[in-house]
């Protein structure tokens, strides 16, 4: 087999492994950002549980009509939207968002690589700030409109958008100052419990 563990290319000192950040690459992040990430992850877990519960209740309601409730579908849909917004900052901070990495391999190890990361983080700051501003405007207008079944003001959903995009701004600002350090990577195993 061509992948042998004692091959020199597989050692920890090899240049191929030098570009891979260690799993604890986010240890240099400020404590408030680490706590914010934990809160976002827990909020995302709660919304995911609400999605699961809403969908399962809908399924059970199809087979047991007396307990069917139309609001279960609305709970699942609104939880999905809230999950999307509330985890936006977390995904930005952990590089779990969509990234174009065409230049990463070309510029890896060069000074321009840090400049590219700073530029990307600045674009994310501007984008998240603009979306947070729009969310704020939608919150002001959203108290008049309510959802169909739960009669919940739509402004509540935009509050989650505002929180998520402000978090995205914070995570992006931190990425600017940590552009010369290894970036944290999204670790799916930390989401498994």
TrEMBL record:
GO terms for biological process: C4-dicarboxylate transport. GO terms for molecular function: transmembrane transporter activity. Residues 8-19 have a biased composition (Low complexity). It is a multi-pass membrane protein. Residues 52-177 form the Tripartite ATP-independent periplasmic transporters DctQ component domain. Pfam families: DctQ (PF04290). One of its GO terms (cellular component) is plasma membrane. It is found in: Cell inner membrane. The chain crosses the membrane at residues 41-60, 66-92, 112-133, 153-178. Residues 1-23 are annotated as: Disordered. InterPro entries: DctQ, TRAP_DctQ. It comes from the Bacteria. Belongs to the TRAP transporter small permease family. This is Tripartite ATP-independent periplasmic transporters DctQ component domain-containing protein. It comes from Conyzicola nivalis.
